[in-house]
Structures are given as structure tokens and as C-alpha cells.
Amino acid sequence: MKLLIAALLTSAASAFAPPSSSVAYRQSTVLEVPIAKSNTLNYNVASRNNYGPLFMGWGPDPIWSAGAVESNIQACPSGLCVSLKLNVDDGTEFMYPGQYVQVKPSGDTDVNPVFLAIASAPTGTPPKPTPPGKKKAKEEADAAAGPEPSTPEPATWEFLIKKTDNNDWITNIKPGQTVDVSQVMGGGFPIQDNLEGFKYDFPTQNVLLFATGSGIAPIRSAIESKQLNISPAGSGGRSCTLYYGVKTPDDMPYVSKFAQWEELGVQVVPVISQPDLP
């Protein structure tokens, strides 16, 4: 039997430096969160005398709303990361693991926003995957019907943020304070579209997850979303293994969640690069 492996690859999720999150599947198909900085440059299309503008961007302009800090706690023994909970007005836009938001100090236009992957499970419900033969017809019908009206729903989102020299305004923020939060951005990991059905001849049987440092944030979201549709070890269903790398054991967040993830069917393999460091 052939083996189809789906791998979720991430690096530091605290700032989403390009490219930090992607979903890679067999047959060299790679789906990435769109994270290229706004810029315009000249690109040589065919020869030195044939130039044209190439536009790249972060996506739509942010639409800011207020988010209230519920808690901000140390996420690992070394204090390298913090775990931040924000109460937001509308949780329905967050439907896929790997989606992110921009966050900046409330009302402050001088500080650049940070780009944060949402670490908690999605709070919105994604649409069911459309069979390949019917996808175009559905897209045309949806475009003709226009966007469906939605009712804002309160939600609490969690973030894992690595401390840096210039983000102490958010890593040291206190409960009760407010920040400006953008709408949910990025397409996230379209897990069901790629793992279920027969896009790759048969449904995925084995899932491999890889993350380092704060890049575990969107991976945690994927695991706790239950969209991976995995089964506990030995049950005969889809298997899943997470390889999670950090420098020292004290730099590893979410250790207390490993047992819960194992119950969901994820075999957790910690990878420590410098275990002897104090």
C-alpha cells in the first residue's frame, strides 16, 4: 500500500517572517500562508530589456477592532515565550489552523503591528470540501450570491509569542489592557481539502507534523481543531506524529498538553538540539 504523508512545516510564528508556515503534501504540492511584505520591484521577465512591475503584498488592508487581554503568562520555564489570551468580538472568521492576525498597541500608529498565528483551535466552522468537478460551479454560484451576512460572536484566541528586543509592549502586557486586532488573515491549512477524499488517489493514512520553537502555535491549532481526523495509536485509523524541536528542555512550551495530544492520536517526539545547556 502506498504511503501518503502530509507534513505541516513551521518556523517562528511570533512575527511570521516569510515564509514561516506552510502545508506540504506529496507530489510537490505546497500551500503557504500568504506572508510577503508589501513592495513593488522590477523583475526581469525575459531579458535585460524587458522589465515589468511585480506587486507583492501582505493581503488586504487590516480592519482594526479592539481585543481585550484576558491573560498573559510565561509559556515555558526559560521564559523565552509567553502565552497570551485575547477576547475578540468575532470568532467566526477563524476557520482554519494556520490563519493569523495583526496586532498593535491600541490607537498607536507609530508601532509596527506584529503578525501572530492563532494557537487555539478555530472558533468558526469551515465549509465542507467541494468535489473537484463541482468546485468551479460552486465558486461561480457563491460569487453571484455575494457574501452571506454574519453575526459577530465573542471568542477567546490564544497566541504563543517569542520575546524579542522590540516586542515587550505585547509580551509584558497586562490583563485588562486592550490592543488593536485585525480581521483574520490567510487561508490557513486547508486540511480537509488535502487529507480527505481522493485528491491524491486515496485519503491520507499517515500525517507528520514538524515545528520548532514558537512555530508550534499553528500546529497546536491543527491538532486541537480535530480537522486532522486522526485516531489513537493502535485503533487502525489515520496516524499522526509530531516532531517538535527546541534548543533546551526549558524552552519547550505546551509540555502539559502533550498527554492530551497523545490521547487525540498524536505521537509527540521532542527534539532537543542542546540538551546540556544550563
List the helices and strands and how they pair.
Elements: E1 5-10, E2 21-25, E3 29-32, E4 39-44, E5 51-56, E6 65-74, E7 81-88, E8 100-105, E9 114-117, H1 132-145, E10 155-162, H2 168-171, E11 178-181, H3 191-195, E12 206-212, H4 216-225, E13 239-246, H5 258-264, E14 266-272
Parallel strand pairs: 1-12, 12-13, 13-14
Antiparallel strand pairs: 1-2, 2-3, 4-5, 6-7, 6-11, 7-10, 8-9, 8-11
Describe this structure in words.
By secondary structure, the chain is of the alpha+beta class. It contains 5 helices and 14 strands. It has helices at residues 132-145, 168-171, 191-195, 216-225, 258-264, and strands at 5-10, 21-25, 29-32, 39-44, 51-56, 65-74, 81-88, 100-105, 114-117, 155-162, 178-181, 206-212, 239-246, 266-272. The protein has a 6-stranded mixed β-sheet with strand order 3-2-1-12-13-14. A 6-stranded antiparallel β-sheet has the order 9-8-11-6-7-10. A hairpin with a 6-residue loop joins strand 6 and strand 7. The termini are far apart.
Q: Helix amount, in percent?
A: 10-25%
Low-confidence stretches: 1-48
Oligomer state of the chains in this structure? single chain
Question: Shape from CA axes?
Answer: flat
For the largest beta-sheet, the strand count, sense and barrel status come to:
6 strands, mixed
Counting DSSP H or I runs of 4 or more residues, the number of helices is 5
Q: Structural class given helices, strands, pairing?
A: alpha+beta
Care to count the β-strands?
14
* Rg (CA only): 20 Å
Span of the ends, CA to CA:
46 Å
User: What is the mean pLDDT?
Assistant: 79
Largest sheet strand order: 3-2-1-12-13-14
- Series of secondary-structure elements, N-terminal to C-terminal: EEEEEEEEEHEHEHEHEHE
In terms of DSSP E residues, the strand content is: 25-35%
